[in-house]
Design brief:
Helix content: 55-70%
CATH topology of the largest domain: Rossmann fold
CATH architecture of the largest domain: 3-Layer(aba) Sandwich
Order of helices and strands: EHEHHEHHHHHEHEHHHHHHHH
Structural class: mainly alpha
Strand content: 5-15%
Bound molecules: tryptophan
Number of strands: 5
Shape: elongated
Strand order of the largest sheet: 1-2-3
Number of helices: 17
CATH class of the largest domain: Alpha Beta
Length: about 350
């Protein structure tokens, strides 16, 4: 069976380091592994509209930002098909049919929906579209016959719900849809990178993000003012690693080779951690090192971003071509779905025959 990847992001802002270590970096590795027959990367603008209906302009602008972020991390349009969700009407149609296979109570139990509703204070005023976005996400995944969905762990309930829909569809109408598997990040620290302030998650509204498009100077300032161990007051004090954001970022981004280059008195991160815990290692020194590590990752990204920023019409063409390819695939799946559900009246001669038999 072909190995096919589908994943994507909502275009509600520029992408940040949390997106990078949590999924973009992995996507590029998967892309370059040569192990996948097809890779679809979707800018989920229709999903972004489910809770931004009053601000379509925000979604509209950020499509280009996200496309630039994709290209700048090294997603290669020759290998990965980049496309825009709302330009594929087949996804909406699949969503409509799948909606009949899902109950309201099942959606209410979806932990991601539940916590997003609480976080955004939606309560009784949840838009129906927002409430049902797990169904639309199942359409995204199945339309491309995805076998593999690389996402952060926050998306696990979505995958679970998608798999239920696939199972229900296939047992009701026949084996048509491909059962997808989730692919989680393999590094614990990458699972959910905290914000620079130590809060659980990088989030635009909290102002605690390091963006892929930040300048070198912006990143330096953000790193130097990062949250560490609040009880580590003097250099000689023993320091804590748990909840220490600087070390979490190092866990996510640091390679041994960076020590040889920037901090040769330590062989690896374990030695640095041990010294910090013992006492005698100051935060500023660790932060300066982290800044170098950040720059190792971000400098090439920044450079590629500048390249594409001066070629926006090429970016547009990449998205358009990718969207056309994606639509052809989604149209095939929709066709199979309609045939399986037997809602194919004009292309299936049996439909007329059945009626004629009845009136013979
Ligand atoms: N929900 C994802 C996010 O918020 C975006 C997304 C939409 C997605 N459809 C998808 C991810 C399908 C994986 C597969 O980031």
């Amino acid at each position: 069976m072909a190995k096919i990847i589908l994943t994507g992001d909502r275009p509600t802002g520029r992408l940040h380091l949390g997106h990078y270590v949590g999924s973009l970096k992995r996507r590029v590795e998967l892309q370059n592994s040569g192990e996948y027959d097809k890779i679809f990367i979707m800018i989920a603008d229709a999903q972004a509209l489910t809770d931004n209906a009053e601000h379509p302009e925000k979604v509209r602008q950020n499509i280009m930002e996200v496309a630039l972020d994709y290209l700048s991390v090294g997603l290669d349009p020759a290998k990965s098909n980049l496309f825009i969700q709302s330009m594929i009407p087949q996804l909406t149609e699949l969503t409509f049919y799948y909606a009949n296979l899902v109950t309201v109570s099942r959606l209410q139990r979806n932990p991601t929906v539940k916590s997003e509703i609480q976080m955004r204070g939606f309560n009784a005023s949840i838009p129906v579209g927002f409430f049902t976005y797990p169904i639309s996400q199942a359409a995204d995944i199945t339309a491309f016959n995805a076998t593999t969905v690389p996402v952060g762990e926050d998306q696990a309930p979505m995958l679970e719900q998608c798999r239920e829909i696939v199972h229900k569809f296939n047992t009701t109408y026949g084996e048509v849809l491909t059962m997808p598997d989730i692919l989680l990040p393999d590094n614990e620290a990458c699972m959910r990178l905290p914000g620079t302030d130590g809060k659980a998650k990088m989030s635009k509204s909290l102002g605690n993000c390091i963006y892929l498009s930040d300048s070198e100077e912006d990143v330096r300032k953000k790193v130097m003012s990062m949250f560490t161990d609040p009880d580590h007051l003097k250099v000689s004090d023993p320091g804590k690693l748990e909840g220490n954001t600087v070390f979490t970022y190092l866990d996510a981004c640091c390679l041994d080779e960076y020590f040889a280059e920037y901090l040769p008195e330590y062989a690896n991160l374990d030695e640095l951690k041990a010294h910090y815990q013992r006492g005698g290692l100051g935060d500023v020194k660790v932060k300066k090192f982290l800044n170098k590590v950040m720059n190792e990752h971000l400098a090439p990204i920044r450079e590629r971003r500048h390249y594409w920023e001066s070629r926006l019409s090429d970016v547009r063409d990449i998205l358009q071509t990718g969207t056309e390819t994606a639509e052809r695939t989604a149209a095939e799946t929709l066709n199979n779905v309609r045939n399986a559900m037997k809602i194919n009246y004009f292309t299936d001669p049996d439909w007329l025959k059945e009626a004629e038999e009845k009136y013979r």
